[in-house]
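Researcher: Batch entry, complex prediction.
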Amino acid sequence: MSALPEVGAEAPVRARTPSALDLFMFSASSWLLHRIHYDTPFTTEHDGHPGLLIHGPLQGVYLVQTAESWLGETARLRSVSYRHLAPAYLGDTLECGGSVTAADDDGVELELWARKPDGTVTTTGKARFETMTTR
Amino acid sequence: MGVITEEARRWAEREYPRFEMQVTGTDIAKFAHATGETNPIHFDREAAIAAGYPDVVAPTLFPYVVRMHASALVPPEQLEADGSPRADVPPLPTRRAMAGETSVEFGERVVAGDVITVQKRLAQMYEKEGRSGPLVFVEMEFTFTNQRGEMVARESFTRIYR
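Model: Structure tokens for the complex:
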């Protein structure tokens, strides 16, 4: 009965290229005050980065959105975990995708990732979605 | 051996104050637009009601916003030069902090008008020898509940200090 995808099915890849404005809005709306996300001179001169960093939690949101926009209203996110493998900087494009690794009567498990066009994976994650039976 | 001193352990194991955030539709809409959400249930009250919710619904990872306010909504003199809250800086001989794994379990959804309480506690703290010196792992657990006492989310977040 469930309209959920089968094991091996892949989510459409969503490419995200957050602008300086997007980075600032994420910092402001979540009250994440760390300067490496909006203060370029501090980030490059003091901290030695090539540019502003794309927030790890914003990449976590991108992974979740990739799965949610694919599965639509048929399932609800029950749990997600993610970790960062490489930094992502302002100007980088993050191709976000995922696939189903397991399926049962109640839902599916996905692996999710964000990677740069050169193949560098910046964030990987796992998520479990369950079908909406009541609401 | 070991960089985790008694002082560092007391710092991590201390009791953390509960933090309460009255979540408005504006808070939710800001986070939704900042993350490029296109579903109007996150910023249009009528669309949310039409979808069966009492008011604007928060994007799934919104509890993160509550825990950031819990730690960073302090007078500016309580912030470090890099913008991080001084209370979050451990008494360790390390220089840099990196985000480790984040893991979140979800319960009830957050809707505009909710009062979300977050309680933080130390889950575990341990060290490993890295290639360039000691690495200290501090795993914190955050429990989010709404005004009815229902679990909204439980998050575990590890910070790595080196």
